[in-house]
Amino acid sequence: MDRRRKTIKSITKSPEKREGIDRINQFARSEVKRIFLGLKKTEKLVFGHTHQPFINTNVANTGSWVSDAKEQNTYIEIENGKMKLRKF
Q: 19: Cβ–Cβ under 8 A, 6 or more apart, which residues?
């Protein structure tokens, strides 16, 4: 199978079955990303699209608004510097 077809086949799988998704989630939840990205301990990082929403100290993942996600329609609310995971 050529590289293009292999890529298309990979990205059309459900998120839990995609190659490398576990490594992405491990990195997202680790302290390494803060150092890797040059974030100060007081800074917050909000990102999404790994289909697994979470809040972990100063890091938040909004998840993804797709029907194949385990937890759907989530977003992050930040009020007075505190992050909360909310459902729409």
A: 10
